[in-house]
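User: My advisor, Dr. K., asked me to get a structural model of this assembly before our group meeting. I'm new to this, so sorry if the format is off. These are the inputs:
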Amino acid sequence: MEKKIRVLVAKPGLDGHDRGAKVVARALRDAGMEVIYTGLHQTADMIVETAIQEDVDVIGLSLLSGAHMTLFVDVTKLLKDRGIDNVLVVGGGIVPEEDVPELKKAGVAGVFGPGTHCDDIVNFIKTNVKR
Amino acid sequence: MNDIASNVLNGEPRSIARLITLAENNDPIATDAMKGIHPKTGKAYVIGITGVMGSGKSTLIFELTREYRKKGLKVGIIAIDPTSPFSGGALLGDRIRMTELATDEGVFIRSMGTRGMLGGLTSAVYDVVEILDASGKDIILVETVGVGQAEVDVIKIADTTLVVLVPGLGDAIQTIKAGIMEIADIYVVNKADRSGVEQTVAEIESLIDITCSDKDRKIPVITTVAKENIGTADLLEEIENHKKYLKKTKMFNVQRRKRYEAELVEIIRKRLMNFIFDESTFKGKVESLIDQISKKEIDPYTASEEILGKILK
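Assistant: The format is fine. Below is the predicted structure of the whole assembly, which you can bring to the meeting.
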């Protein structure tokens, strides 16, 4: 049987705008992936525990509040602390260009801002998934 | 026994999660591990939760889990959502109603796509029940996809089956009586703060009176408002009563035996189908037979005998 890519789509922190996350979740489903959508207001702890239980290949974080430098990095740091190195982390939302290099250094492998085509996210995941 | 199996027996979350994935993908490592853990299973009590879309199954599971956690019991949750028949992908959203449970070490939640199975379950669900059972969970809650009328497979796996309905279905209850209305051990009318609840309960009770008058146990109808945690304690008590009834009447072992029968049938079906359609032995043969059927050179029955004849001889 074909192995399916499993993706956790989560919204960390206190940001209530989930339209973008839902659009991406649907695009990933239509690309044949199994998408676990957890909804709003997730802590880094919740996201990492969920990623473990669901054995996902990818975590997709969406944030429009501007707190990505804290909240995205909290997730990648916690993953490192737990010794999880085979999960691809990507992020999306309102992220200024100048923040991208630092996010990548912190372990967010891909950052997708407004105007990104869904196919680009799908292709990025398919190319970079770690197992 | 391989490492992953012994880690599962120790309740290690990452190994539990990994083994579930391997079982879903029909990986040979999973087959070995499943052989190793089976002797350690059978302790967990399995509750199936089925019902129409939007009836509040996930919220009810969240509240039931909180009640069981208060009693110190460990809970495994299997939440099944439909896989798209077109893309093969799935949007698994049952966790949205259970986010508070994500960081509770005594709870393990797994979302699954149906991956082509009809009947409201998914092929690997039997494996996942065994894995969660072996990992030390006391209670396993299996949430089916939102069902229509005929998705009744949950009774093959559950010790107690809850059918969740909502007020305002009206005459619909009459029309669905042939399917999911035959499988309940307990009826739950959720969202009971809505109008029409008395009528819904009355309609269910009249159905019970018609269909179950010869049985020695009357199927209870419980009203709940899951999002406000109203009625959950009563529901828990009725589940406990049903468990006692099963044990007293020896039905418990009969039902468990039926589960293992269903599991065996499913494993044989899966392995046989893989052998014929996925492995190289027959793949070319199957493709050429399909071509021949299209050209009317052979009929489908003769074609099937060409495959089955090779296996059964």
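One thing worth pointing out at the meeting: Strands of chain B lie at 45-51, 75-81, 90-92, 107-113, 139-143, 160-165, 186-189, 221-223.

User: Perfect, thanks a lot.
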